[in-house]
Amino acid sequence: MHETLLIKHAVGGRTFVDSDHQPVTYQAEPAEGSRWSFEVQNPSDKDMDELLRWRSELNVFLFRHYGEEQPTVKIWFYVQEDTVNYDKAKHILTFTARSSIEYIPQQFGYKL
Question: Domain tally for the chain?
């Protein structure tokens, strides 16, 4: 399985973090209740000021790619804006998601 982390601006669609195109490592772990805890190491400093500016409008996604065995699974997380923090000295972004939705994208949308 291959997993991709995306952190985007919900309204404008700008991508702040894309683990397939940036040298980042991350952890996403279930936390208390239906929450999730995230730690992203080595995100670009130049993007973090903008990300923090829009912390109340972030969408976070994990895409789990299984190749030919089964369809890609998408998990959409709702970020708690008051938990978004960036440690410039360590280049670590942390935040908590209050809930998530897991689905298979191919099962949704308009088909001709």
Answer: 1
Residue located via tokens 């080595």: 42
**pTM of the predicted structure, to 2 decimals:** 0.88
What is the residue type of 36?
Answer: W
Instruction: Summarize pLDDT for 57-108 with one digit per residue, the tens.
Output: 999 999 999 988 889 999 999 999 999 999 999 999 999 998 889 888 877 7
Q: What's the domain range around 78?
A: 2-98
Q: Is residue 6 part of a domain?
A: yes
Question: Is the C-alpha dihedral spanning 32, 81, 39, 67 positive or negative?
Answer: positive
